[in-house]
Amino acid sequence: MIDQHHADSTVSVTVVGFGAMGVPMATRLANSGLTVHVVDPSAEARARADDLGLDAFTVVNESPTCDLVLVLVATGQQLLDAATAATTGRSVRGETWIVSSTVGPNAVRDAAKILRSGGAAVIDAPVTGGVPGAENGTLRFLAAASKAEIDSASKLFAPLGSVVVVGDQVGDGQATKLVNQLCSSVHLAAAAEAVALASRLGLDPSRTVEVISGGSGASWFFDERGPRMARVGDSPDVLTRLAILAKDNSLVEVEADAHQAYVPLLKAAKRQYERAAELGLLEEDDSQLIHAYFD
Fold this sequence. Notes:
By secondary structure, the protein is an alpha/beta fold. It is globular and about 60 Å long. It is built from 12 helices and 9 strands. A 6-stranded parallel beta sheet has the order 3-2-1-4-5-6, sandwiched between helices. The protein has a 3-stranded mixed beta sheet with strand order 7-8-9. The protein has 2 domains: about 170 residues, Rossmann fold (3-Layer(aba) Sandwich); about 120 residues, N-(1-d-carboxylethyl)-l-norvaline Dehydrogenase, domain 2.
């Protein structure tokens, strides 16, 4: 149970989306002394917030106007729905919205127009670091906004991780995150392909991962996911859902095609995510992409 009675009454935060990332991030914010409210359409999520001592609401226009609004939704449409609901159902004047979802430049720009029309400020700040980063306070926010806007959210950023300023225009953060997700989705597929090849060659996959990790052929994904991939047949705990990189891979492809960018590796990786979807793996840990190379 989080004790909100000793919260810093001068700083209030609404966290929109109380899922795998929202739970640890809201918890860290509340434990740092901020007053935290939660918005999530899921009754199960709201019950979990209630168990933690956090006020929870079904939709954002039911929540009170706060200093900061941290958005952790899954899609661009959900972001637009939240922005529209907030501006039509209550006042957003004086709020600063921090969009930390990966939704693409167009969605965040459209949401910013809606929110700014109601008097809110917007920081485009998608995150890297996943659930472990959210739990440990080591996330990296790829922030795009004015210095004053970013500084106004310092009490939110401090307990959650570090801020890397990537631009001053809304959309720059999302664009930077797309480049990151191109690398991530390709590296995950490459790691799975390498582990599968080791197995086909008659090698011990776990030993091969140990040998290659940290060397010139490795990547962060190979080093981190490789050991779980090598235990083919196990069902590891879900640390990061495969659906996230599958979704982001497709989002990157849309933007790349729109800008006539040549991304053959991204498209090759996409075929493996599509295969994983066919196998019903999207709700599994993303290390389970390995099965797309065997089944």
